Amino acid sequence: MLRTLIPLLLFAFQLGAIVYARFVPTRYFCWAPFDTQTDYVAKATVNGHELTAAEFRERYRRPLRGFDNRSPQHVIDMLQQIEEKRAPLGDRATVELKYRVNGKAPLEWHWPPSH
Prior knowledge:
Blueprint: H1 2-21, E1 38-46, E2 49-50, H2 53-60, E3 65-68, H3 72-86, E4 93-101, E5 107-111
Antiparallel strand pairs: 1-2, 1-3, 1-4, 4-5
């Protein structure tokens, strides 16, 4: 009984995660995570200084201009996570991310979020 129940529960979890991933922007649990192509250009200013390409790469561990074959939310999550960690340290940063998903119309994301 247990030998049948465990694989069934695992399969049900995987199926549930895939269905869930189809309705959220991050899609961390998709079986086919490379179905979205995102190209982006970012610009960041920290404490009044606009970061160079090398400074941007050092701060965010990503290139200033790049391509990601996942959801744009992955790139946004990475940038946001860095800024949320550095804000308590006194960094005043603004980030502008312009991106296109699968060659469609350009979109933008900004940090800090406007309320």
